[in-house]
Amino acid sequence: MKPNKPPRIAVLLVNLGTPDEPTAPAVKRYLKQFLSDPRVIEIPQFLWAIILNLFVLPSRPKRVAEAYASVWEGDSPIRKILGQQVEKLQSRLDGSMAPFEVSVHAAMTYGNPGLPDVMDQLRSEGVDHFIILPLFPQYSATSGGAVYDALTKWSLKQRNLPNYTIVKDYFAHPLYIKALADSIRRFQAVHGKPEKLMFSFHGIPQPYADKGDPYPKRCKCTAAQVAQELGLNDEEWIISFQSRFGKQEWVKPYTDVTLEEWGKAGVRSVQVVSPAFSADCLETLEELAMENRDNFINAGGQEYHYIPALNDDEAHIDLIEALAKPLVAAWAVTLEGWD
Ligand SMILES: C=CC1=C(C)c2cc3[nH]c(cc4nc(cc5[nH]c(cc1n2)c(C)c5CCC(=O)O)C(CCC(=O)O)=C4C)c(C)c3C=C
Ligand SMILES: [Fe+2]
Ligand SMILES: [Fe+2]
């Protein structure tokens, strides 16, 4: 039977997630969901449930809620920026696949808008074709892998499954490297060149990398390509990892330790860029732009700048469009002859 309207293809831009508000109860709800994911914490479940409920959740949310409050802009920055990315991609794709309509949506692995809710809503509106684009440039089981899981868990509950395709990552895509290099050049046109450029990536525990998580290698590849594009020599840049959680060893070198060592060693000026974050968030606006600035300056450093994430830069939207559009076109091909 012919549908009333031409079929619609949905693109989901997915990011990690964030609390609903910067309060201890909301942060507790969010952290409980996030930190209960075995992709994120690989300690045996029963043991971790005890640690999480007895030690982490009673104390961490208050401190973290204060950190969120210091960067909150009417909404969590990561959710606000994801909304802007969705809007800009939507305007690029409007009318591009006629007669089929393309709609773009925000989704989060943890918190709201949650991926399963977004899928349910779109299914109820009759969408049968999806492109899922996690905005994690360097795949890790702990970030992108968790998006695959969320989709699989949702799928297990469906009888009539939709068509979907998921993009694993894009750590060396020429438009990604170009967008990063251009954003650094733009920043340096205003603030000048630093003694050291630091590529600080969100870390993962070292044992995860030892067991085969490809994330650190992908981070190194991204940073090396951007450094090459900028014509930097080996003395002028470094890769480091931030946001450690818990007591185990994480991938090294550590961002905070390196900045402190540099401050003590007489390094005067540093700029920090964080290519793993497709949107500014708590980990960049608070940890990198505030906390780590203090680490460097208190250790004797003079000048410290954080270079913003790609956010809704046109060059970033160029990349996202280049990733999504061919996949939209591929689903459109399968819809030929819909009437
Ligand atoms: C074992 C713990 C964690 C792993 C592994 C991890 C990997 C990982 N995370 C991101 C992106 C983000 N993480 C953010 C916050 C955040 N991350 C962890 C822990 C792990 N992350 C925690 C506990 C938190 C919450 C804050 C806190 O309690 O310290 C964010 C910010 C979200 C926001 O609301 O702004 C992002 C983004 C990646 C890409 C990644 C693996 C590569
Ligand atoms: Fe994280
Ligand atoms: Fe952090």
Automatic annotation (TrEMBL):
Location(s), subcellular: Cytoplasm
The EC number on file is 4.98.1.1
Q: In which pathway does it act?
A: Porphyrin-containing compound metabolism; protoheme biosynthesis; protoheme from protoporphyrin-IX: step 1/1
Which GO MF terms does the UniProt record name? ferrochelatase activity; metal ion binding
Instruction: Report residues binding Fe(2+).
Output: H202, E283
Tell me which domain of life the UniProt entry assigns to the organism this sequence originates from: Bacteria
The record's annotation in PROSITE patterns points to: FERROCHELATASE
Entry keyword set: Cytoplasm, Heme biosynthesis, Iron, Lyase, Metal-binding, Porphyrin biosynthesis
What's a single GO BP term from this record?
Answer: heme biosynthetic process
- Where would you find the membrane-spanning parts of this chain? none
Q: Which GO terms describe its cellular component?
A: cytoplasm
- Report the InterPro entries cross-referenced here: Ferrochelatase, Ferrochelatase_AS, Ferrochelatase_C, Ferrochelatase_N
What Pfam families does this protein map onto? Ferrochelatase
Catalysed reaction(s) here are:
Fe-coproporphyrin III + 2 H(+) = coproporphyrin III + Fe(2+); heme b + 2 H(+) = protoporphyrin IX + Fe(2+)
Q: What does this protein do?
A: Catalyzes the ferrous insertion into protoporphyrin IX.
The entry's protein name is Ferrochelatase
Q: What is the lineage of its organism?
A: Bacteria, Pseudomonadati, Pseudomonadota, Gammaproteobacteria, Moraxellales
